[in-house]
Write a structure and sequence with these properties.
The protein is of the alpha/beta class. It has 13 helices and 17 strands. It folds into two domains: about 5-55 and about 375-425, Urease, subunit C, domain 1 (Roll); about 60-365, TIM Barrel (Alpha-Beta Barrel). Strand 1 (about 5-15) and strand 2 (about 20-30) form a beta hairpin.
Length: about 425
């Protein structure tokens, strides 16, 4: 990616998501650092980008993505995943450890960080809770943190052993890192392909019950209360799960949670309406309209801290099979803001500042990372966007190496126009 050390961002509105305040200002970047913020800056000696009718915020972060490298580069690489992230307005992502080899040793953590070092998107590895993600023996957590791991998860392989989860929470608390669990009690739905309910019954599809998620969350909340360790609930998807987290927070249990854009957008009826499109198959599965409403209410009242995507690329030959044979997961980075605008901001569930907070401040606070500032003397780490532009997501907008998304042809509201990070400016005007 070519360097753009000097840049004048003209005519934009600066948004501080921590205070919710805005102000009109020009921003001058020199050698990758913000050197001046003023109502008007006249500089003819640096490149200029017109931000009229656009907003500038600290760079967004998606704390739950799958970059597939190492081991599954035919689906995605760190470079292509970061390209998709930049298009979506993200200057940072945290990548999950279900790679091959998994992120269970320090050398894999350092490999990922090195591969991303020159890219315009910061990549923060989430390391495994257990060796090989097998749920038997804890990883060398201290060594992984020293190598750069920001959290621990066996994502996709829920930690079934309560004893192992207890020890993981205890060790992680000493390291001041969260444990992120994929919330599923596998004995209740390990062979399922979609949400248990009216639609699965009508379609004759082996289901995944909401109870499998809720039971695991209840167990882990008790363990978090007992150990004092920080539990982060990955990709929450059921109304009861949101209520469990809401009550736990009220009782002082150290828990945070995230919701994927598709879980506040689509319902299990999409499986039927698309005639079993495998791009409607994800894990946890699409739930009911009542669950979607609960996701929005959880975002509105602050129970749900962060918005994420669970960006999960799969090659076409893997997805172009019958529904029960297809892997779980869809792309998410390119459509995250357009869906947030359409489903949350335009209907008034969140205002722009609240939505951006869940994409900037909250993920970094959960992962103990510094939040970028739009302030003189700080490295420029910015997202340029609006929350009003109506546009149609097309195949040409997909930057990932894979193509598995159900949203091609959908109208989006709100565009991420550009990002600036690590001295690099990436425009998404197309």
């Amino acid at each position: 990616m070519p360097q753009t050390p000097d840049l004048l961002l003209h005519g934009g509105t600066l948004l501080d998501p921590e205070t919710g305040t805005t102000r009109r200002a020009d921003v001058l970047i020199q050698n990758g650092t913000i050197t001046q913020i003023a109502e008007t800056i006249d500089r003819d000696d640096v490149p200029r980008y017109d931000c009229t009718d656009k907003m500038l915020s600290p760079g967004w972060m998606d704390m739950h993505v799958h970059l597939r490298e190492p081991g599954y580069e035919y689906k995605e690489t760190i470079a292509t995943g970061c390209k998709a992230a930049a298009f979506g307005g993200f200057t940072a992502v945290a990548c999950m450890p279900n790679t091959d080899p998994p992120i269970h040793t320090r050398d894999v953590v350092e490999f990922i960080i090195e591969r991303a070092a020159k890219l315009p998107v910061d990549v923060y590895p989430i390391a495994c809770v257990s060796k090989q993600r097998a749920g038997k023996e804890l990883t060398e957590m201290g060594d992984l943190v020293d190598g750069g791991a920001v959290a621990f998860s066996d994502d996709g392989s829920p930690v079934q052993s309560a004893g192992l989860m207890r020890r993981a929470l205890e060790y992680a608390s000493m390291l001041d890192r969260p444990i992120i669990n994929h919330m599923e009690e596998l004995t209740l739905g390990t062979k399922g392909h979609m949400n248990e309910g009216d639609v699965s019954t009508r379609l004759g599809m082996t289901p995944v019950p909401a109870l499998s998620e809720e039971l695991m969350i209840a167990r882990d909340l008790l363990l978090a209360e007992f150990t004092g360790g920080h539990l982060h609930v990955a990709h929450i998807s059921t109304a009861k799960a949101v209520q469990l987290v809401r009550e736990a927070k009220a009782n002082g249990i150290p828990v945070t949670t995230e919701v994927c854009t598709h879980h506040f957008t689509l319902t299990d009826e999409a499986v039927e309406h698309t005639a079993f499109s495998t791009d409607t198959k994800m894990h946890p599965p699409l739930r009911t309209a009542a669950d979607v409403a609960a996701m929005k209410e959880g975002l509105r009242d602050g129970t749900i801290d962060a918005i994420c995507t669970d960006h999960a690329p799969h090659a076409s030959f893997e997805k172009e099979v019958e529904f029960i044979a297809a892997p779980f997961g869809i792309l998410g980075l390119e459509t995250a803001w357009g869906l947030t605008g359409r489903e949350l901001i335009e209907p008034g569930v969140l205002d722009v500042a609240e939505a951006v907070h869940k994409l900037t401040v909250a993920p970094r606070q959960i992962l103990r990372l510094p939040v970028p500032k739009i302030k003189k003397g700080t490295p420029a780490n910015l997202t340029i966007f609006d929350a009003t532009t109506a546009w149609t997501f097309e195949s040409r907008h997909i930057q990932s190496k894979s193509r598995n998304t159900p949203f091609v042809g959908d109208q989006m509201i709100g565009r991420a126009w550009a990002v600036y990070n690590k001295g690099q400016f990436v425009k998404n005007d197309g």
